[in-house]
Specification:
The complex is a heterodimer of chains A (240) and B (109). With 240 residues, chain A is mainly α. Chain A folds into 2 domains: 152 residues, no CATH class; 59 residues, no CATH class. Chain A contains 12 helices and no strands. In chain A, helix 3 runs antiparallel to helix 4, helix 7 packs antiparallel against helix 8 and helix 10 packs antiparallel against helix 11. Chain B has 109 residues and is mainly alpha-helical. Chain B folds into 2 domains: 57 residues; 52 residues, no CATH class. In chain B, 77% of the residues lie in helices and 0% in strands. The chains are: A mainly alpha (240), B mainly alpha (109). At the A-B interface, helix 1, helix 2, helix 3, helix 4 and helix 5 of A face helix 1, helix 2, helix 3 and helix 4 of B.
Chain lengths: 240, 109
């Protein structure tokens, strides 16, 4: 990573800088409000590095959820990253070794969105350029988490209800997906299956998500003849 | 939770998150084309899963008293409205959260 590459990459990351600082601050603040020392917030931002995943993580840690639930819910919430990987196969092909491993690790919603849009400028190594973007983004995320966690530990205001930030984040993602896709059946299927499962099993431990996911995948496979045809309607489905 | 328990949970989250990002590369990075059904699910599962997670976030609302559900639904509607209006992630998330905090702390006490 040299200066020239860094200088080329930085301007592209400014929107993520603003976004990650703010979402990171809220994350750190939620962690402190739930009673965890700032070190944990930073450790999570270094090792997990996932916006919505870590918001959910606060919830899981605060409820002392069993490890099996932690694993299952983390897999579900991050499922959409599979899609990012699939569409980055080509772009990352030229990158090698540890750098590539890091870029796969750092494939968050925002970094994915950036990387799918940008082209390295003339004379700058593409792999290094993408790598720089990934590293910068995570630094912003870690910085935001640290600031939020320390602020939350020092400033004592009534933080009841701050956990709604997770709900708000998902709603924002849903609104964006809704607007970028012409097919809304999956949304109704997802909401309907989950609601049904919740009504039958109750909210404890989030286990109602397991049958919900089964119904969902089954329903999508059944609906494939209807959904999976190129008929010119706008489609997105690539996530936020 | 004790520190080792927290550390273990964080480690599980880290491994599971990395798995979801690495799997496509493990399976399809040797030039093989991903099967059509995977691409299909990859396109339509994310919006369904996000809808599922929103229901998950609302799992603990209680209809026993108006304060048990109205704040969450009002704040959710505010997030949608803010986002349709300004299309600014931060504004929608912060605005909705602060609104919710005011509702649960001051209005529906």
């Amino acid at each position: 990573m040299n200066r020239k590459t860094l200088a080329a990459a930085f301007p592209h990351t400014v929107p993520v800088l603003m976004g990650y600082l703010s979402i990171g601050i809220v994350f750190g603040w939620m962690m402190s409000a739930a009673g965890f020392v700032p070190l944990w917030s930073v450790a999570m931002s270094i090792t997990i590095y996932a916006g919505s995943g870590q918001y959910l993580g606060v919830d899981l840690l605060a409820n002392a959820s069993p490890l099996a639930d932690v694993a299952f819910l983390t897999l579900i919430i991050n499922f959409r990253h599979l899609v990012y990987g699939l569409s980055m196969l080509e772009k990352f092909r030229g990158v090698k070794g540890i750098r590539k491993l890091y870029m796969i690790f750092g494939l968050t919603d925002e970094t994915y969105a950036l990387l799918s849009g940008v082209q390295p400028p003339e004379g700058v190594d593409a792999g290094g350029f993408y790598f720089c973007i990934s590293v910068l983004d995570q630094l912003y995320w870690i910085a935001g988490s640290l600031v939020g966690a320390v602020a939350g530990a020092l400033i004592t205001i009534n933080t009841e209800g701050i956990d709604f930030a997770m709900t708000a984040l998902f709603i924002v993602i849903a609104v964006e997906q809704w607007q970028s896709s012409g097919r809304h059946f999956p949304v109704f299927l997802g909401a309907g299956a989950t609601l049904l499962s919740l009504l039958c099993l109750g909210p404890e431990g989030g286990r109602f998500l397991i049958p919900a996911l089964v119904i969902l995948v089954g329903g999508l496979l059944a609906a494939r003849p209807m959904l999976d045809r190129p008929d010119g309607t706008p489609e997105g489905g690539e996530g936020a | 939770m004790t520190n080792p328990q927290i550390a273990l949970s964080v480690a599980v989250m880290a491994v599971c998150t990395f798995l979801t990002r690495a799997l496509p590369f493990l399976l399809f990075d040797r030039g093989k084309k991903p099967p059509k059904v995977i691409l299909y699910l990859g396109r339509f599962l994310p919006p369904a899963v996000i809808a599922m997670l929103i229901v998950y976030c609302y799992r603990n609302v209680s209809f026993a008293a108006v304060g048990g559900w109205l704040p969450a639904f009002l704040a959710g509607a505010a997030v949608v409205a803010l986002h349709l209006w300004k299309k600014n992630d931060m504004l929608s998330i912060m605005g909705g959260t602060v609104f919710y905090m005011i509702l649960v702390q001051a209005v529906f006490r």
